[in-house]
């Protein structure tokens, strides 16, 4: 072999190596991803649509199925209300995002306990459950987590229960101490999602998180679909995904994507927490760096509504679309029942506040202000009492928006036994 041939071969090897390194910026580490839709039910269509779309982005950018874990109830694609069986879309008249999505954990396997075990790579705990896949990451790896569902102060919801902020932070800290990642990024879509990290996420454990909302506000659903009579997406979620679909992820930084999403999500305050240095990394370091054909979406109205108002908004759309007297009557009746339920929840919480407060002024403060959550011992226990004795939080999303009053009672220093007794006395005849 001539020297020229050897030089050419050497050059090709160098170029190939450089290209390989460029396409995989985490070399020698790899990408891992955990995608979670924490809800069930047709009116919550958008959460599973968000999750499926996220999977498609990660997949087409080169993260293999063996390193993507998907948790979703999986009751949407083949739901009897779905006019396109087997198909889920995340954009008006959009393409199918359900095809090929791994069914790693579905139905009753979508739980906070399983989520934490999967995230921490606890394979033994997941043996015999779903696919058994976990985030088996190591010290050189990049981990990306996307969660979409309902939320409240210091918690995010799953189909049958809730995950509180402290257990999530304990899991992340354990992973850091166990050298389970080089860097981790979390995108959280939920009402009051900023409260999962506010005052909790340190800036020195190589974790950066963004949330759809600050600790005190709703996140918003969008893209009502008249054919499906439900919302197709959530504003924050579709904004980051539609950006990832069209950008060169090897060139765009996380901070640039964050700024775009923050600007375009004009319904809530998109927040960031943790190690800001990670935001200078490229999106491809976490969502996959393989080149992909860009996708551009036409500009259509969001038609955004607060998450807790989605069931009522769906009924209002149905009411406007019908001229059938019997259907009008049925929808109006359903709307009344829903509004009565909302009033019952609000009235019940107010009775608890009035009963637990020392005086009228304190009750007024608790009902009208929002204190930052710091007394987690009190709050977590009171949420459990409210869930068991008053309203099942997994089936009454509107109740989640009332939990800030329990935060306030705890932060005002009202003893736990006083709050617990008030909850029991007000709600003892409800269940």
Could you characterize the architecture of this molecule?
The chain is of the alpha/beta class and 431 residues long. The protein folds into two domains: 20-304, Rossmann fold, CATH 3.40.50.1460; 322-427, Topoisomerase I, Chain A, domain 4 (Orthogonal Bundle). The protein has 14 helices and twelve strands. It has helices at 3-23, 45-60, 112-119, 165-177, 235-246, 254-264, 284-287, 310-321, 325-356, 360-368, 376-389, 397-400, 404-411, 416-427; strands at residues 31-37, 68-71, 142-148, 151-152, 155-157, 162-164, 183-189, 207-211, 220-225, 230-234, 271-274, 305-306. A six-stranded mixed beta sheet has the order 2-1-3-7-8-11, sandwiched between helices. Helix 9 crosses helix 10. The longest helix has 32 residues, at 325-356. It is globular. It starts with a helix and ends with a helix. The relative contact order is 0.11. Mean pLDDT is 94; it is low at 1-26.
């Amino acid at each position: 072999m001539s020297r020229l041939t050897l030089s050419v071969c050497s050059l090709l090897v160098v170029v190939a190596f450089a290209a390989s390194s460029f396409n995989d910026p985490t070399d020698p580490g790899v990408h891992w991803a955990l995608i979670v839709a924490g809800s069930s039910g047709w009116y919550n269509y958008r959460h599973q649509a968000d999750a499926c779309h996220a999977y498609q982005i990660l997949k087409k950018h080169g993260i293999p199925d063996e390193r993507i874990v998907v948790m979703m109830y999986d009751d949407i694609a083949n739901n009897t209300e779905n006019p396109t069986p087997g198909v889920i879309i995340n954009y008006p008249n959009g393409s199918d995002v359900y095809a090929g999505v791994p069914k790693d954990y579905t139905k009753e396997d979508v739980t906070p306990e399983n989520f934490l075990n999967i995230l921490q790579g606890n394979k033994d705990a997941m043996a015999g459950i779903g696919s058994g896949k976990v985030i088996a990451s190591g010290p050189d790896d990049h981990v990306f987590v996307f969660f979409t569902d309902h939320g409240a102060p210091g918690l995010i919801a799953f189909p049958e229960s809730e995950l509180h902020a402290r257990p999530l932070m304990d899991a992340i800290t354990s992973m850091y101490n166990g050298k389970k990642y080089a860097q981790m990024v979390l995108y959280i879509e939920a009402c009051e999602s900023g409260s999962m990290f506010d005052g909790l996420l340190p800036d020195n454990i190589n974790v950066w998180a963004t949330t759809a909302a600050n600790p005190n506000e709703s996140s918003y659903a969008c893209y009502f679909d008249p054919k499906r009579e439900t919302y197709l997406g959530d504003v924050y979620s579709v904004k980051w995904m539609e950006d990832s679909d069209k950008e060169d992820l090897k060139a765009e930084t996380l901070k640039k994507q964050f700024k775009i999403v923050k600007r375009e999500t004009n319904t809530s305050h998109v927040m960031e927490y943790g190690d800001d240095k990670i935001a200078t990394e490229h999106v491809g370091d976490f969502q996959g760096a393989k080149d992909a054909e860009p996708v551009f979406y036409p500009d259509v109205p969001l038609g955004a509504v607060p998450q807790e108002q989605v069931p009522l908004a769906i009924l209002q759309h149905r009411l406007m679309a019908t001229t059938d007297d019997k259907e009008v009557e049925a929808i109006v009746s359903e709307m009344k029942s829903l509004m009565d339920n909302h009033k019952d929840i609000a009235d019940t919480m107010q009775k608890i506040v009035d009963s637990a407060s020392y005086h009228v002024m304190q009750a007024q403060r608790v009902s009208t202000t929002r204190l930052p959550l710091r007394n987690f011992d009190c709050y977590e226990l009171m949420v459990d009492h409210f869930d068991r004795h008053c309203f099942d939080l997994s089936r009454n999303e509107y109740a989640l928006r009332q939990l800030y009053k329990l935060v306030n009672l705890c932060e005002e220093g009202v003893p736990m036994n006083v709050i617990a007794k008030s909850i029991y006395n007000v709600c003892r005849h409800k269940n």
